[in-house]
Design brief:
Length: 365
């Protein structure tokens, strides 16, 4: 195991504060997102698409365990865990052994969980808030992930060809992320024909043609770097350039509101008004607009009912879009209320919008 980790110690204290506040006997974290948070970037992921992994965490007032089976224990101990945790290992074919251990460790008392069973209760909002606000060490990891993800995007779109299929472009994107140690949890691609038709365009065998959009949700240390970029072979038409200008200006309205204590539904309402002012009143209903991010691609998706407030050191990823145009990056709200773009690549073409450098479509040839 790795040496004791100060970040993990701080998080275990937060978990134990929750135990004291709720009179619970244990907290059981099953999701891959919570595993990464509690272990300071460890991974319980084997199947990329799964929300739960090959291990979970159990914390009581005195101890912290990683619960896993005999298939996974050695690798987890060698590569993922610090000495803050003990391992409890059950036979892979006998899950009942694990459940018996949990009952004994918690004295049959109340258990809270991120994914509660019928005899458990959900985690309180206070602990959810702790997960969504980045510690300094988490922010440093996030910067590293965002830089790698944006560099992968630039690398792939700079070498793409119009006769590539959407599958080829998505595959090249995934390869570039893997080469940098990032999980390609999402690589959406739309070529010229499909781009104006679908907001969530999963790749097909169709050639991309004269235009393409690629979207990344790239995961490293459990944290998600979310970004969207466009490619055009030849100059964009004035009409398409205008669409991209509109989404940049709509996004600027939103980014200006990303300050501590701002409710998410206020940001959503501002988005709706911005679309209206730009002549696209239905756009707010044609795709979700994003929200907070971190250990999930979206921790909270903003809508008219989300009264959760933004906080210092919270990450956001907004994705305003029109038919054939979209913009997206991952930002963190710093202590001074300013935004830091974690997925900014200085090698990608940008224009200044409201004092921020924002990406524009890459025009080739």
């Amino acid at each position: 195991m790795k040496p004791l980790n100060e970040e993990v110690s701080l998080k275990l204290n937060l978990i134990r504060d929750t135990l004291s506040e709720t009179n619970a006997k244990g907290i059981r974290l099953r999701g891959t997102d919570w595993f990464a948070w509690a272990t300071a970037g460890g991974s319980s992921t084997v199947l990329l698409a799964a929300e739960t992994g090959i291990a979970e965490i159990l914390v009581t007032s005195q101890d912290a365990w990683v619960l896993t089976d005999e298939i996974e224990a050695t690798r987890l101990s060698d590569e993922e865990l610090s000495e803050n945790f003990q391992l409890n290992v059950n036979p892979w074919a006998d899950a009942a052994v694990r459940e018996s251990f949990v009952r004994d460790a918690t004295e049959g008392g109340l258990i809270l969980s991120d994914r509660p069973t019928k005899n458990e209760r959900s985690l309180p909002q206070s602990l959810l808030n702790h997960k969504r606000v980045l510690m300094p060490t988490e922010l440093e990891r996030y910067r590293h992930i965002g830089r790698k993800a944006s560099e992968a995007m630039t690398e792939v779109l700079s070498k793409a060809q119009p006769n590539w299929t959407e599958y080829q472009l998505a595959g090249a994107g995934a390869e570039a992320l893997w080469a940098r140690g990032l999980h390609p949890t999402l690589t959406l691609v739309a070529g010229e024909r499909r781009l104006p038709l679908y907001r969530h365009a999963t790749a097909t065998g169709e050639e991309i043609g004269r235009e393409a959009m690629m979207v990344f949700c790239a995961r490293g240390y459990g944290l998600y770097a979310n970004l969207t970029r466009f490619l055009s072979f030849g100059a964009l038409s004035p009409q398409k350039s205008d669409l991209h200008r509109h989404v940049r200006e709509v996004e600027a309205e939103v980014l200006n509101l990303c300050k501590p204590s701002t409710p998410l539904n206020s940001v959503y309402d501002a988005l709706a008004q911005a679309y209206q002012q730009h002549g696209y009143p239905n756009a707010i209903r044609e795709h979700h607009q994003g929200g907070t991010t971190g250990y999930l691609a979206r921790e909270i998706v903003a809508n008219p009912g989300t009264s959760d407030v933004l906080r210092e050191n919270m990450a956001v990823a907004w994705n305003p879009s029109l038919s054939g145009a979209k913009i997206e990056d991952t930002f963190v709200i710093l202590e001074d209320g300013k935004l830091e773009n974690l997925t900014f690549d200085p090698n990608w073409h940008s224009v200044e919008v409201e004092g921020r450098l924002r990406p524009i479509p890459l025009e080739v040839g």
